[in-house]
Amino acid sequence: MNDQGTLQILCICDDDATRFSREPVLREAGYELKWLPSNADLDAVSVRRYSIAIICQTVSWKRAAYLTALFKRFNPAIRVLRVNTLRSEMENGFKFECELVSGMSALIEILDSISKKQTESYALSPRHIWAFNLS
Predict the structure, then answer these.
(1) 10 exposed, middle or buried (CB, 10 Å; 0-12, 13-18, 19+)?
(2) Is the pTM of this model over 0.85?
(3) What are residue 81's DSSP bridge partners?
């Protein structure tokens, strides 16, 4: 969170159309975002700025697994959310906080919940997993 209490979110996405459709909705909901492609160079200092990392479905599961491990190593408190498509379940079961079936309302609901809990200084266990199936 920044000084104003807004969640700092790192979004990893390899498709500009996905980015351009989600970014305005998330900004309208009051979140500060940084969008990067999955092949961007990340260091510990930059990852520590973020409370949440969202890995979009456009990122391969192998790269998503690597990024999740990297984020957790650099920032053990970061929450990693993986957006999944309706066509499949997660490919490998790597550790993340939440798997979302595509849908902005579910994503915003989860971000609002995390923001509220952090504002209340309530810390969830890093192993806590939320699973939503919107089908």
Answers:
(1) buried
(2) no
(3) 54, 98
Closest CA to 6 of 65, 67, 52, 60: 52
pLDDT digits (tens, 9 = 90+) for 62-109: 898 899 999 999 999 998 888 776 544 545 555 555 555 556 666 777
Expressed as residue numbers, the domain containing 73 is 8-131
Task: Kindly state whether residue 44 falls inside one of the protein's structural domains.
Answer: yes
Number of independent structural domains in the chain: 1
* Spacing of C-alpha 67 from chain mean position: 11
Q: Tell me the per-residue pLDDT of 8-47, one tens digit each, with 9 for 90 and over.
A: 899 999 988 888 888 888 888 888 899 999 999 999 998 9
Are residues 36 and 14 in contact, defined by beta-carbon separation less than 8 angstroms?
A: no
How far apart, in whole angstroms, are the C-alpha atoms of residue 21 and residue 25? 7
Tokens representing residue 24 in the block: 């305005």
CA distances from 43 to 46, 48, 49, 50 (A): 6, 9, 11, 12
Q: Taking the chain, what is the end-to-end CA distance rounded to the nearest angstrom? A: 32
